[in-house]
Amino acid sequence: MSSKTLNLNDQVYAYLLKNISIESPAARGLREETHSTQSMAGMQVSPEQASFMAFLVQALNVEQAVEVGTFTGYSALAVAQALPENGRLIACDVSKEWTDIGQKYWKQAGVDHKIDLRLAPAAETLEHLLADGQEGKFDFAFIDADKSNYAVYYKLCLSLLRVGGIVAVDNVLWGGRTADPTSTDASTTAIRQLNALIADDSRVTATMLPVGDGLTLARKL
């Protein structure tokens, strides 16, 4: 038993990775290509976070999911692989260059038909879904995009979720900067404000986990 989360040194982290659900060949290939060719590879979620999200999707029997911020598609692949055959993930991003990398691995994994990629500003895509009568139709949402619009994405995703659905928000610890009152840049401030909003939001029950760069899970009441 421990009174706080264990510090993951390299040895413990390697052991953890060996004992989570096996990463598919397509997922491993996508993760490795992203890290070898992308200067912004740090934007990709960690393998243990992807495994955790896939576990959530299966445990919640998710059929309809939305992702805000796809990058090269590693998290989208993890979610799509966990969805049932009739499941759908709407993936929102603005970069064709980055998402093109992911699409070949989605196809390799045989899940490309589950992923509906929307190349447009995410807020516009979410608003169009609501206008199309999709309010309360989604089971799971994942937010990992530009931090300045986190509160906007959270509000729209919450409207799209059914009662009991979960929105997962990435980077809530932001390398520790959200806990540092001297960090006042725009991104840190936006995440910090959303963290406070969720903590006081009577529409959800929520928890914050030290997974990856910090992951908040909020369940719609």
The share of residues in extended strands comes to: 15-25%
Radius of gyration: 17 Å
Unreliable sequence segments: none
Question: How far do the termini sit from each other?
Answer: 32 Å
Distinct helical segment count: 8
Q: Count the strands?
A: 7
Describe this structure in words.
It contains eight helices and seven strands, in the order αααβαβαβαβαβαββ. Strands 3-2-1-4-5-7-6 form a seven-stranded mixed β-sheet, with helices on both faces. A hairpin with a 5-residue loop joins strand 6 and strand 7 (about 215-220). It is of the alpha/beta class.
What's the layout of helices and strands?
Layout: H1 10-18, H2 25-37, H3 47-59, E1 64-68, H4 74-82, E2 88-93, H5 96-109, E3 115-119, H6 122-131, E4 138-143, H7 150-160, E5 161-170, H8 186-199, E6 204-209, E7 215-220
Parallel strand pairs: 1-2, 1-4, 2-3, 4-5
Antiparallel strand pairs: 5-7, 6-7
A few lines on this structure:
The chain has 221 residues and is an alpha/beta fold.
